[in-house]
Amino acid sequence: MKIAIIKYNAGNIKSVMLALKRLGYEGVLTDDPEEILSADRVIFPGQGEASSAMKYLKDKGLDEVILNIKNPFLGICLGLQLLCKHSEEGDTNCLGIFDTEVKKFPNQLKVPHMGWNSVEHNNDACFSGIKPASYFYFVHSYFADICEQTIAQTDYMLSFSTVLKKDNYLAIQPHPEKSADGGEQFLLNFIKQH
Amino acid sequence: MLTKRIIPCLDIKNGRTVKGVNFVELRDAGDPVELAKIYAQQGADELVFLDITATNEKRKTLIELVEKVAEAINIPFTVGGGISTVEDVSMLLAAGADKVSINSAAVRNPQIIKQMADEFGSQCIVVAIDSRAVNGKNLVHTHGGSKATTIETEDWIKEVVELGAGEILLTSMDHDGTKAGFADELLSKVSQLVNVPVIASGGAGNMQHFVDTFKNGKSDAALAASIFHFKEIGIPELKGFLKQNQIEVRL
Known about the structure:
The complex is a heterodimer. Chain A has six helices and 13 strands.
């Protein structure tokens, strides 16, 4: 099993590698298109700012690479947001896999939305072994609106997309690599899917 | 709903936990990695490691420790203690820390908060504040609470958030070590001044104190050390008690 982790100018990549290691898998950190396209699983993690991340992906040609991946693909946090159509962060046109907009949380809320919040999901296979209303660890100031591809949602004054799924593309807003047992189960489900 | 967080704090010296710990499960009571694993298993929501090492070897041993902790646990953790430069933050985050907390260095040079937040994002910059009441005013103290400044805590909190702090860790020196409860009046006041999460620290003595700081202090998270280390309160029973008191927690 070859798991590629896309290397770009976003932080928090090491914790994904370490989570894979705890689960008994080795991730390869790479920005090489061939290596990414040939991997059995591709993880697109990230914490950072949308416009600079998109610019970096375009400069490296990684935007096209991501759109051409045929194997299971998982976006995490900023990785989810960059798969949407557009983000209010830096007024950024994103990759457009998911048919939704990324917006900033309203000012009356504490931002970032930081900590453990419950995830209501639709029992899709990616949630196998994860109870409804399980808690995941979130850190984000922008959220993806609910759309047809939303398969899990979370409330923080308003409801937003926690997990999105379309074809081989899966994306999660909280950090499974920091979400204790439920998060590890989510990563395992992604890796072990047929 | 977003839950209230329970955060055990581990004091670290030369890569080892200080302050006695009373865990029979531990093969090595001074090993922060083992203690961290137990807290994570028991349902701690996050951990804070506060490095109080004063030697030249400090940085190297701390980085090694952060790498081991990041490998071992599956919950977020913050590292603090003597962090003063963008380079310090860069190394700790690269070693696997989720957040860093800065204290005295921010008081010395507030612009460092902005530099760190611009470089790494506000979400990983925690500003720790030690506050003590002096002649009716809450004043910021530095160097582990030993040096008074003339800065008022409420003003400082507003300033650090404007500069980019993503979270506030507020320790009341008046309450710390008393086991008489958190500084809920001050906490509630500052929680309304800023729109970033506030972690209550100092004064935890029993489970009701946690209920009080979440309800009356409007705290987003509560940090404690000795009551957890000495098993005066277990994290599972504390969370059960909070739930009974209609406080949303992760069980």
